[in-house]
Amino acid sequence: MKLEKAAAVIVIITGLLDLVLRLSTGAWLILSWVVAVYDFIISVPFLPPILTLILGFAAGLHLGVRVGAADSSTSSGSVGMPNRIYGCLEINDVLWKARADLSNLSVSRLYVESEPYCPECNTVLDGDTVYKSAARQTNIWECANCGFRTERESDTKNKAERIVERHFRQITTNQDEDYAYGNLMEKIEEDDREVTGESIWNEYVSTVDDEYLSTDCFV
Ligand SMILES: [Zn+2]
User: Fold this and answer.
1) Ligand 1 centroid – CA 168 distance (Å)
2) How far, in Å, is the centroid of ligand 1 from the Cα of 127?
3) Mean pLDDT across the chain, nearest whole number?
4) Suppose 87 and one of 83, 98, 186, 199 were both cysteines; which one would form an S-S bond, judging by CB atoms 3.0 to 4.6 Å apart?
5) Is-contact 104 96, C-beta < 8 A?
6) Rounded to the nearest whole angstrom, what is the distance from the C-alpha of residue 27 to the centroid of ligand 1?
7) The whole model's pTM is what?
8) Residue 91 pairs with which residues in a beta bridge?
């Protein structure tokens, strides 16, 4: 038994020695090859600067591609989700255009245009005051393009802001409802349409029943 053990140890040690020798010979071979290539490169005039240029260009390309990839991955909070949704309301016969800037899928900034638009021709309306008599005056919205006129109520912009904020919040904070952004985007893509800040709103309006919702701003 002892003899067999000793023989086994000798075989293992011989094998290891052989492996180390082979590896070191290989290393020396590679090293001598590298030295030979290096000798060749520096012996040829103009080759070192040309190789440096080529290596520098390759390194630049590699870094450029990596920087480009990093840039595109930071621009969006969710895959395919636009970072802006547009909204449109019709209140007292006139159209209010709104916009929600999104950051990490929540509304970071809400914006409603200060003047409403004409429901007939989509032109910005002028606010005016009409005097029916010295004692009676009426505030109106008037379209310079088509002549549309309607009575102007005070504070409609504030009303538009409150209403549209609620709708933008509904789109962005829910996950399971039909009007959640994920489901709206899915429906748009199913119809082979492009997912944009406007198409999300249009899809939302066709999903939700609300008296002020409109899509006429985007025609
Ligand atoms: Zn008009």
Assistant:
1) 27
2) 13
3) 82
4) 98
5) no
6) 84
7) 0.63
8) 94
